């Protein structure tokens, strides 16, 4: 059975490599179409160039950037509004256009917490993606954004409590909350250890974040045993955007 096409939607350059780099590499290696939409940062910035390098490593095509400004980095998109301040309908329409053009069977994005960090751009990207996946299949919504297309499955990248506890000592967040879900909420725990080298290389491609001591560098530069422990499994919860009578498309197929 062919591995399903996959489009990941994340807030910032580096999120795709950190939280779904293994799944993206795995699907690409199996011959599936894979891609990434990034909701913040402009295409002519250094971090966009780093994103392009990371996606080449993962086999995930060229960057697809909505071009909004990062909530905490006005230099991310000079002259553009912050993602959080953009009209919701405008942002959803842009993402619907990408969904209808790419026509993925699976969509992956942040969970409702916005991942471990709870960054407001992550949370908002989750909300936009949930709305866009539903709207994409409805022909009377955004008719100018392409022919309707309904993804078969939506997976939310997350961490169970047990994995979050193992990861916490390696993060620079000793005084901040780390968001995770009960272990029984996980519907896909994907072993990406065969693609760990690619995932780490993609994380390190985000040189700006590595240099400033952010999460990509902290985790990619761990000793090999610790790095394998915290990065070789990716966790997701599944939402079904279409009727339950439709064929099931699995992330781990």
Keywords:
single chain, 253 residues, alpha/beta, seven-stranded mixed beta sheet, 7 strands, 38% helix
Low-confidence stretches: none
The major β-sheet equals:
7 strands, mixed
Estimate the global geometry from the Cα principal axes: globular
Averaged pLDDT = 94
End-to-end gap: 8 Å
Task: Tell me the number of strands.
Answer: 7
Q: Give the % helix.
A: 25-40%
Order of SSEs, N→C? Answer: EHEHEHEHEHEHHHHE
Q: Reading side by side through the largest sheet, how are the strands ordered?
A: 3-2-1-4-5-7-6
β-sheet strand percentage? 15-25%
Q: How many helical elements?
A: 9
Overall radius of gyration = 17 Å
What class would the helix/strand composition place it in? alpha/beta
Task: Briefly characterize the structure.
The protein is α/β, with parallel strands linked by helices and 253 residues long.
